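Recap from last week: sequence in, structure out.
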Amino acid sequence: MSVRCSRTALAVALCTVFQPAIADSVHELGEIVVTATRIPTRVNEVVADMTVINRREIERAGGETIVELLSRQPGIQVASSGGLGTASSIYVRGARPEQTKILVDGLPINSIDLAGSPIRYMPLDNVERIEILRGPASTLYGADAIGGVIQIFTRQGTPGLKADGFIGYGSKDTFQANAGASGGNERWRFRVEGTRLSSDSISARTNATNQDADKDAYRNSGNTASLSFRPAKGHELGLIHRRNKGRAHYDKGFGPADGTTNDYVDFKTEQWQVYARNKLTDSWTSKAQYGETKDWQKNFASWAPTGSLLETDNRLLSWQNDVVLPLGTALLAIERQVFGDVSDDVAGSLRAFLTWAVTDGDSLAEDLYYAPVTGPFERVTDWNVAPPPGRVNASRGHRSLTLSRATNDASRVV
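Predicted structure tokens:
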């Protein structure tokens, strides 16, 4: 028996097969991002090297963690020292981990902990979108953004009443559960969510004996809540809170794998912010934001049998204004950031900057003022030129004492 297929039938079949892919491509080209310019911009108009991971891709990731999901993105390498919750270093384009700015809903989450960012404790269930900006972004985000910026946006409330949840069980006695509810109307919107992740995990050492031969268990539970109020069209007041706590076991990192102590770290991460977004005129939008991120870790190991405490506090106060001009959009912002040990501010910066994006795709960025509150600083000039209809970026400023440069003085062991 022979089968014949006309060219028309073949074309129809191919269109049917590739139609979802074409639709996804169109959707991605029209997607709005904010990390690259700090102004809402269509992703296909962004000159910088950028990746957007939307909620659909996150759901397809299944039981992966944020660190695992990032490790599969181009230009990013992740070095982990074991299973879930263990030290993980994120390298963007080869830059050191402390040279990549990590934000959650606009707030920095970098830590003075040498084991890496507390992003490894954040559950993926609560994430709506991740934007990855590769390459220098010091003009817009400060001196810690030499390698790039990773910004995580959490899930927020939407009109109507909705509930969602997930529960799963896998190997290594891994259990994962998530439950959330959201709702609201044209004025009020809310979302509440709770998560739980536990696993016996694995041992990070081979040919190990004693305590280094056991599995490094992991426990993490958390909750998030967000509330927003829109008193009038173009005006919004909001509050976001997120908290996680748990315990992560790990093996001795140096010497023979024959440790006699059961090393582990108890952790708590908390983040909250309040914001006001106001459309003052048809061409002027203003956003004021204040928030804090706290990273609390207490290690119990052979070198610290009674526990070694490390705490990091990030505080950000910012005011950003987007003004639509006849030739494009101008952004004028001022922000104050302080980071370091919670009992003693280590370093900070007061920055004001202006960017201007022309509507035809060209852009000019100028850092007007960038002055450190403490620590040494140096003048920085950066140019980024792309052929038409690309962009031309020029920035000048001063680089202040960064989080990584402050780490040696910031660590407190009690």
